[in-house]
Specification:
The protein has 2 helices and no strands. By secondary structure, it is an all-alpha fold.
Amino acid sequence: METHQVMSAVFLIAVLALVLPGFLSTNSKIKQFMNNLSIWAVIVLIIVVIIYLIK
């Protein structure tokens, strides 16, 4: 792995550690949790596709 990839992974894990507790506490109901999780999945998918197209 390149240094850039390792730093990106560390950054993403740090962001996840900061966001996850608040995300879980505000999504106490399973329907709301699944809805918000699907929205985040779409956002991440769009970002990955954009990054793939740029390279």
